[in-house]
Prior knowledge:
- The protein is mainly alpha-helical.
- It folds into two domains: 11-70, Orthogonal Bundle (Arc Repressor Mutant, subunit A); 94-127, no CATH class.
- It contains six helices and two strands.
- A two-stranded antiparallel sheet has the order 1-2.
- A hairpin with a 2-residue loop joins β1 and β2.
- The protein starts with 10 loop residues before the first helix and ends with a helix.
Amino acid sequence: xxxxxxxxxxxxxxxxxxxxxxxxxxxxxxxxxxxxxxxxxxxxxxxxxxxxxxxxxxxxxxxxxxxxxxxxxxxxxxxxxxxxxxxxxxxxxxxxxxxxxxxxxxxxxxxxxxxxxxxxxxxxxxx
Length: 127
């Protein structure tokens, strides 16, 4: 029985999802080769099966091998994880997250200018 779609992904699950988002449908061997670190074939296979049980990927049998495809989009997972970070680390305040990024110099003046442009563009779309 698949678990809730809102279930968060572990760091390794995210690595595997990144491969599927970039490559499209892939079997265990392709995912294993595209990962940024060496993992045993059986480890990758187990993780793909877990992602399948969680409802994050679907699989189809082709030539005696399962090919896995992401069911959830990268943007959906990103929104989910950012929302979790905002809730857990910043008490639900997106402003506190942005202020932290500015204070730690993760947002440079150039990036802040780009952010300001995105905000202005977003305001224009809502009018």
